[in-house]
MaoC family dehydratase (Variovorax robiniae), 138 residues
Amino acid sequence: MTNTHLKDVQVGDALPPLTLPAINRTTLALFAGASGDHNQIHIDTDYARKAGMPDVFAHGMLSMAYLGRLLTQWVDQRQIRNFGVRFTGITHLGHIVTCTGKVTETFAHDGERRARLEIQTTNQYGDTRILGDAVVAL
């Protein structure tokens, strides 16, 4: 988590971006083991090709986990009040994922100051792969 001055957060402020190393087979295998998601489309090239894909590709939840990291480098995880995403594209092997976010609203809820955020992942070509939103306590 950075030393952000959360009391000064305003609409339009950007979260510090998070760029991860290129997706590779090791990352997919480690995530499959850690998450328990051993769906063959993510780890078995032959299976992926039979399904019409050129190769295996990243779990959607891996990219969502990266967005979770984006949030927790900005606020403590105990400050996350809501976090959801919509998958808009496939993250393929070799894609470099960058997570970004911006403040779209600040408001009070039950006496707690909060911020609503738009968050997303893109690959190195600028293609959006996940769109999401989150609410965090400030």
Observations:
- The beta strands are 18-19, 80-87, 98-109, 112-122, 128-137.
- The CA atoms of residues 109 and 137 lie 9 Å apart.
